[in-house]
Design brief:
The structure is a homodimer of 500-residue chains. The first copy, chain A, is α/β, with parallel strands linked by helices. Chain A folds into 2 domains: 238 residues, P-loop containing nucleotide triphosphate hydrolases (Rossmann fold, 3-Layer(aba) Sandwich); 233 residues, Rossmann fold (3-Layer(aba) Sandwich), CATH 3.40.50.300. Chain A contains 20 helices and 10 strands. A 5-stranded parallel β-sheet of chain A has the order 2-3-1-4-5, sandwiched between helices. A 5-stranded parallel β-sheet of chain A has the order 7-8-6-9-10, with helices on both faces. Chains A and B meet through helix 6, helix 14 and helix 16 of A and helix 6, helix 14 and helix 16 of B.
């Protein structure tokens, strides 16, 4: 998930000054309400050394009622702690009803530093994923709100910060040999953090990854996330509890109370000017199509199942892209599965049911033209399923894809990205062209009107479901040639990687 | 858990005739209601070959609307199934909303026969526990009711049945070499079944273990469990959904609609006539106290934490028993922790918090005079916590104890059992004896009036939380001498076993 983090996110002083103070006041107010409602709150800060956890915690407690929180700095276990079960020292520190427990490092130590530094055997830290999930689940079931932050900076940024601290009279004492040692193991820690995020981001205790290059950005993002989570917990407590809806009726779309202050998404990182000239396009496409045919055959021989997901904006060119990708393949080896709104038996089952039904045999390729991600895209934006349900879906989808991965599948997920302006041009063109007019419907215009909502939904989807075993690729699709070659290439490379 | 199953449970024809027909009618009615409510129902039958799964399923479907159910017999995977992820064939078979899917064998194949017969590597079946839990959780979160039965018979009984079938003209074809091969591996299957029950009995998909020696008993038990579960699912759907109560108010105790038809519990298996003559008592006690002192020291040296739980009827003699057990020990090595109703900080935290706080250091012994089991005893019976909460607690407690086990702890859990008549005698005696009068309070009389409710609660507690790593021992406590020696001995043996 971490490779999707946009580390350049920042907030200038003017924007910061405008949002931060009201946010802090709101948080203070929420804390009082949470206190009165008797909801225990656990806030976990994990992340790189020097990423700014301390600053964030300082700002956080600067404004809330000191009787209502406690900060726990978790270092190496004491002798007393070593002699007890791992979770002992954390259970002891859980907040009482209405209190807030703020953890600077936490029970994740075991799967981060203790794992990387080989302080415990593999068997032990592997088992901890379950123990930790169970622990958090028990607290959540008991009504605890759990909010977890991973403060993320690049290796270079970490080095800069450590060096700067070393040169400071006031901070140099804080940089130890241990910090530098950990810095040199950045890659190993990154790997551990990735696995931690994948395995412990649950519906009841989700991680929020925060790009931590800019301190102002971090503060606002952390405060905002926490305030939103507290508000949700309060709503859930006071509103007539939402019944679990097995088949939610189509209702008015739920809109967020306010657009988040930070509107930059993972999509903004892609360079939409990328293009391929016709001749180059033909050469490249031909090359990758041939390669795909070889790989298709090798996957067949080696019994490797391949699953490709196409998602993207309306008119981004999914259909044409798929046609080019399969252009060179043997049709006996693949199938293209178009997905529209569920009807009949599909609607009468769990939403994953129809996708499980379409899982290819080992050795075959299934290309989904839209997919299970509808749950967190259209169903979320259009209010077709309860908020509970789509929030839970990120975890469910990660587990689903993990099962496919365990069964040996190659998973490739492509988001075809175009600009809003470009979409309009394409819609207009479709309307003008008789042979394409059928492609443009009222739904398309309605979706377009919700562009902003979709943008956020896409951001959440990509950041929360891009895993080591099933990463997302944002394909710049402003130029169709570029996008087609890119799609073919990403798929080919993933297949080749798996066969290696 | 399986060692707590009373395989002698049976129902005579008269009792059976009286309850079975109404139960079947009730089930048929419930099925219609569930259908109308759109609740998908999954019923899983696992258990020994020849334990009577087929008979049960036949009876079950004999009365319900054939449009509403489907029976899935799960054997070896087909070629098509082998080529897909393990869960594929089960996902395909999940029932639609309102339908009932009945599984004769199921996804548990992997952790039973495929495990024992080494059809898959250890890594794969170990991972399946998680995959299975996730699968069931997704269905449950989507509103599916999941009811799982393990039909249990002894090795001898299985042999008898296989032999009888072989001699029958109509059934001999059903007994294969494979069945006999599996029979010979009864021990290995038992071990696999134990681990399966421990790891996959979750609040959202609990196992019901059914003593299957007597067919009539099985039918009634299965029908009754299923009817109760369906009723609960319907209630949850129609009632204004119970909000998660972080701090439930003390309310009127929830009583079951009807006492279950089968009132025999695990407690009824103990032989309350057991006793020790004074002289023998003194010799034995002396012997075990000396042994415990040695073991205490060895555990200290080897840094083994020991946790002892005393539960039992009021006036069963817990206090006196504990005094004798620690009689020979070095007081620096143990502590006795008396538990009463939570107040103050204890009440303001998760119910497990105060027990975590009291976990002994490695090398030390903690003896709990009453314990976390209050959650599923007094809190359940007196309605001090929501039904949701105590039902969830079995799983939570098993996970809690698993954490202790992983940390190397010896876990000994004793239920001190006396008869109702004997309790009355002891109460009266306490009232007559000035020095003991303080021991008897109104609470004791109130609890006594709820004897039947407690009996069921104790049964559920023992059957659902007796695990391989933390088994329960029912100590016959009608004779205090017997009970004291027994308590000391069980503890000593568990410690010695761990040190071996």
């Amino acid at each position: 998930m971490l490779e999707t983090v946009d580390l350049d996110l920042e907030l200038d002083r003017a924007a910061y000054d405008k949002v931060f103070r009201p946010l802090r006041d709101r948080l203070a107010l929420l804390q009082r309400e949470v206190f009165e409602a008797g909801i225990p709150v656990v806030v976990v800060f994990e992340g790189w050394d020097a990423a700014g956890k301390g600053d964030c915690i300082e700002k956080l407690v600067g404004r809330i009622d000191p009787r209502g929180y406690e900060v726990h700095v978790i270092g190496s276990p004491t002798e007393d702690e070593v002699l007890r079960p791992y979770l002992w020292r954390f259970w002891r520190r859980i907040p009482a009803r209405g209190d807030m427990g703020i953890f600077d490092h936490s029970w994740y130590r075991r799967v981060l530093s203790e794992r990387v530094e080989s302080d415990v055997p593999r068997r032990v830290w592997q088992r901890s994923f379950d123990e930790i999930s169970q622990f958090e689940r028990m607290l959540a079931d008991d009504g605890t709100l759990i909010v977890k932050f991973w403060l993320h900076i690049s290796r270079a940024e970490q080095r800069r910060r450590l060096e700067r601290m070393e040169q400071s009279d006031y901070e140099s004492f804080r940089v130890t040999a241990r910090d530098w040692k950990a810095h040199r193991k950045y890659r190993k820690y990154l790997e551990a953090a990735e696995e931690m995020l994948e395995r412990t981001s649950t519906p009841w205790a989700a991680w929020t990854v925060v790009a931590a290059t800019d301190r102002r950005y971090v503060r606002v993002k952390v405060f905002e996330t926490l305030a939103e989570a507290m508000q949700r917990a309060l709503d859930a407590r006071s509103a007539p509890a939402a019944r679990r809806e097995a088949s939610p009726k189509k209702g008015p779309p739920r809109r967020r109370a306010a657009a988040p202050a930070l509107a930059r998404t993972v999509l903004d990182e892609s360079d939409l000017s990328k293009k391929l000239a016709p001749r180059e396009y033909e050469q490249e496409l031909d090359r990758w199509q041939k390669r795909l045919r070889e790989l298709e055959f090798q996957c067949y021989e080696r019994r490797v199942p391949v699953i490709v997901v196409y998602e993207g904006w309306d008119a981004a060119g999914k259909g044409g892209n798929i046609r080019r990708v399969i252009g060179g393949m043997d049709p006996r080896g693949y199938s293209v599965i178009p997905i529209s709104a569920p009807k009949g038996a599909d609607a009468a089952h769990h939403y994953l049911w129809r996708f499980w039904n379409s899982i290819p045999k080992a050795g075959h390729i299934a290309i989904f033209d839209r997919s299970w991600y509808g749950r967190v895209l259209v169903e979320r934006v259009e209010g077709l399923c309860a908020e509970d349900a789509w929030r839970r879906a990120y975890h469910e989808i990660n587990e689903f894809e993990r099962s496919l991965h365990h069964a040996g599948a190659v998973l490739v997920k492509l988001w075809l990205h175009i600009s809003k302006a470009s979409q309009l041009r394409r819609f207009r063109e479709r309307e003008r062209t008789a042979s394409k007019r059928y492609k443009i419907t009222e739904d398309d215009w309605r979706n377009r009107a919700r562009w902003e909502d979709y943008r956020l939904a896409v951001h959440d989807m990509i950041t929360q479901t891009s895993t080591s075993y099933a990463p997302w690729t944002v394909v710049e699709a402003e130029d169709k040639n570029w996008a087609r070659v890119r799609g073919a290439r990403v798929l080919a490379e993933a297949m080749a990687e798996r066969l290696r």
